[in-house]
Amino acid sequence: MMLLNASGCLDAFTAPEVVRQLDGFVTKTITPLPREGNAPPRIAETAHGMLNAIGLANPGRERFLAEHLPRLLELGRPVWVSVGGFCASDYAETCAALEGIAAVELNLSCPNVDEAAESAAEIVAACRATTTLPLFAKLSAAHPDVAEVARAVASAGADGLSLINTLRAAALDRSLRPALARGGGGLSGPALKPVALYAVRACYAATGLPIVGMGGVETGRDALELVACGARHVALGTVLFADPDAPARVREELVTAARAAGLASPDDAYGLAAGPSKSLERPPSIPA
């Protein structure tokens, strides 16, 4: 099992020591052109998590490839690049330009992307035609049937899934105005964990593909539950903002939680709560 960060929740250049606690680093979502993101305020705390409306702020594909990626590769951890866009060709062109990385995470669940199964599959198929790199499709649990989308992207050539992204939500300030300039944003943190468990379990049963589980992970027990639902790997998100030592702590707690559950290791929990998988019987090419 690998421990990763959720895309956008860790700046590798300001916190390289945190990156080195992980088994791999996932970049912020990269789009073809630079994006400044949404106007502030674009982050707000909630009672059980955090709202963000960053708006895919990033340096753009050209600058990322020329300046950022070489520096990331020097950190000594496998790099997963999160790729975004506004049409299938945006994604495919970025994938075609990537090399020397561990995997690509296709962000198919930002508010600017149609999450219909057909649209997600079209994007994955376009990317599959341009690269042999492992492709992990990041899906939203907001879709009425996330397992349907998972089956569609698996059939289109995805090697794995990342579950889940934030869910749309809103919060008000003391004056009863929206806390975020955009009005709403993506909810992350502990409130998301039950949703993530359901999505991981459903998509594992539907596809059998390797899954990076995320959403509300704060402790080793949280991570272990995602593994039990069918996650092969786990990503930490909101917790990294408050606890830079979370990767090392969660790794230790995973072992303790597994033993408390009567298991020899965290890997022994894999799929215990998931039931039988309808695997597509297509051996995926994924990073070790």
Produce a short descriptive summary.
The protein is α/β, with parallel strands linked by helices and 288 residues long. Helices cover 32% and strands 16% of the residues.
Describe this structure in words.
This protein has helices at 16-19, 61-73, 88-97, 117-128, 146-155, 193-207, 220-229, 239-242, 246-260, and strands spanning 3-5, 25-26, 43-46, 49-52, 79-83, 103-107, 135-138, 160-163, 167-169, 185-188, 211-213, 233-236. With 288 residues, the protein is α/β, with parallel strands linked by helices. The chain has one domain (3-37, 56-174, 188-269): Aldolase class I (TIM Barrel). The strands form two sheets. The chain has an eight-stranded parallel β-sheet. Strand 5 (79-83), helix 3 (88-97) and strand 6 form a beta-alpha-beta unit. Helix 4 runs parallel beside helix 5 and helix 7 packs across helix 9. The longest helix is centred in the last third of the chain and has 15 residues, at 193-207. It is globular. Residues 111-116 and 281-288 have low confidence and may be disordered.
